Every structure is written in structure tokens, then in C-alpha cells.
Amino acid sequence: MNKNKFGEIVFDDVDLCNLLFQKGELPDVTFISDSVSIDNSIVDTKIKIQPPTDNALSVNEFDSLNQQCWYMPDDYKDMDIAKHILDLCDNEEQIQRVGKELLLYQEKNLFDLLKYLKYLVDTMYNNNIIWGVGRGSSVASYVLYLLGVHKIDSIYYDLDPEEFLR
């Protein structure tokens, strides 16, 4: 098996045979190289087979296509994330900061990412999974602080959100 430039693990015919006979949990989607000829009726019940992403795509085109595919419950997909975050604010300073950041997130078309992060944080919290305090430039975002992604109050430390969203 090999990884393509998009990070997909692509199986050849030997890998596919090993995968079909392995015991335990199988991947949701298996990418099979073009050189493998297989009757899908044999494996339909065990694994979902899909051709790998077209290598003619650039990595940027691949990223752009996948930014539309967020796997999360519909409750999160349909939520008004801007309203949710604004509702978490306690004072005018926070509202102003969040408004500024939300404009930056909107400009970069990242509202779906915010919805996914809300889902991820809720899932980790509900399953007692501990994550770090925060690191890197993400701690400059007060929006991420309100969502619980990190524990650094960027207003208190006067961190510029442009550091994260440049």
C-alpha cells in the first residue's frame, strides 16, 4: 500500500486481499489503485471501495473540494455558529472582538470549520477526553477560546487575531 500526494492510502491487489481476510475493524472507505480489477459484488458487504483522487488535481484544488465535506451531525451543520458564539459573550468588548474575528472567519469561508470545531469540542467533552491548553497562533483567536478549543483568553493577553487568521 502507498500514500498518494493527498494522504490517501491506496491499496494494490495484494493489499486488498490482505484487507479482505483480516479480522477486526475495516476502514469505512478503501482506495484501490487503477491497476486492480475487482468485482465489487464480492466486497460490497465488507468494505466500501472507491478510486483514489485524480492525480491531475493540485493539492490546493483537492483541499478546496474537501473543505465542503465536514462529517458531523446535522444539528451542527445547521446551527447559526455566529449567533452561538456571540451569545457566549458577556460584555461589549467581547462582542466587538468576536464580531471582528467572525468577519475574518467569514472572509476566509471558515464558518463550517467553526461548526466542526464546536462538534469536536462537544464530543471530546462528552467522552471525557482531555486536550491541551492551547498552542501556536490559534490562541490569538478569542472565538476559539469561547468554543473551548483552547484555554487562553486572547483579550486578557491582548493577542491580535490577525496572528492566527493571516
Entry summary:
By secondary structure, the protein is α/β, with parallel strands linked by helices. It has helices spanning 13-21, 40-43, 59-66, 74-77, 81-87, 92-107, 111-126, 142-147; strands spanning 2-3, 9-11, 29-32, 48-50.
Largest sheet: 4 strands, mixed
Give the low-confidence spans: none
Topology as H/E string?
Answer: EEHEHEHHHHHH
Overall number of strands: 4
Specify the structural class.
alpha/beta
Order of adjacent strands in the largest pleated sheet: 1-2-3-4
Number of domains: 2
Number of helices: 8
Taking Cα atoms only, what radius of gyration do you get, to the nearest Å? Answer: 21 Å
Proportion of residues in helical segments? 40-55%
Spatial shape: elongated
Question: Which oligomeric state applies?
Answer: single chain
Proportion of β residues?
A: 5-15%
Average pLDDT, all residues: 84
